[in-house]
Design brief:
Layout (H helix, E strand, L loop, with lengths): L20 H15 L3 H8 L8 H9 L6 H10 L8 H10 L2 H67 L7 H102 L3
Helix pairs in contact: 6-7
């Protein structure tokens, strides 16, 4: 059940009163519970947005394992039926709870996304260059094969003329001489054209080989970068989780200390009553 924007189910929830990530997660759980949305429904709803939410991510956010990023918070609240004009208090509360560690982690993730996109674009371009060079190489090889066939045909024609001229009693006419000369010119031009094509084919072959090496290098760099940045993110998340645990533990101890101090004050008041003279 998705609530209409006019719903007042969330009117008593005050995100500004959240003093910890755990408090904020508790308010989000109330929003989801009152909306009637299941994790599956939230995941399906977020799939229509630019950045969808996985069920595992939502579990972390609702359990208070980590603070939601702004787009995650907005996606959840809108999917649960919170009016868009009521988002600002939630966004302010989230920003107030965002710790330096979380901000650093966001920066690293954004940098990771930028590097991944850059390497992805370079890989696409390198693969496209290899594809183009292979196509040029194939086309030129086919043309070269046709030209070599023509060259062999010219050589066969020249051989027949020579054989006819040396035959016993054969008379060589001026026309045969001119034809043989023309065939020699065509043959020489054809051989020169073939040699040029072979040189061009060798250049394309070398360029294609270098482009394939570039594809391998970019792919390896992309994989290595993902692994390195992934380790950095994991390391920061681990430290962030530990820092969050220590913060919660400190808050719990401070709360217990406040309770103990209140009990001591009560006992001191009771003791003072007994110490008053009758």
């Amino acid at each position: 059940m998705v609530l209409s924007p006019s719903s007042s189910l969330f009117g008593d929830l005050v995100p500004g009163q959240a003093n910890s990530v755990a408090d904020f997660a508790g308010l989000l759980r109330q929003v989801r519970s009152r909306s009637g949305m299941t994790y599956d429904e939230l995941a399906r709803s977020s799939s229509n947005r630019p950045k969808s939410l996985a069920k595992s991510t939502m579990t972390d956010l609702f359990n208070g394992t980590r603070l939601p990023r702004e787009h995650q918070l907005v996606t959840i609240l809108l999917a649960c039926g919170l009016p868009s004009d009521a988002l600002e208090p939630w966004q302010r509360a989230r920003a107030r709870l965002e710790t330096p560690q979380e901000l650093d982690l966001v920066v690293v993730r954004n940098d990771f996304d930028d590097v991944s996109r850059d390497l992805g674009d370079r890989l696409v371009e390198a693969r496209q260059e290899v594809s183009d060079l292979r196509r040029r190489e194939q086309d030129l090889a086919a043309r070269l094969a046709r030209e070599e066939t023509k060259c062999r045909q010219l050589e066969a024609d020249l051989e027949r003329l020579r054989a006819g001229r040396t035959a016993a009693g054969a008379v060589v006419s001026p026309g045969d001489v001119r034809r043989e000369q023309d065939l020699h010119v065509l043959h020489d031009r054809e051989r020169e054209h073939i040699e040029n094509m072979k040189a061009e084919l060798a250049e394309i072959n070398e360029a294609r080989r270098q482009a394939e090496e570039q594809v391998e290098l970019v792919a390896a760099e992309s994989k290595d970068s993902r692994q390195q940045l992934g380790r950095v993110v994991d390391f920061m998340e681990l430290h962030f989780t530990r820092a969050e645990y220590e913060r919660r533990r400190r808050e719990k101890l401070e709360s217990q200390l406040e309770d103990a101090q209140r009990r001591i004050a009560q006992l001191q008041r009771v003791l003072a009553l007994y110490q008053e003279p009758l």
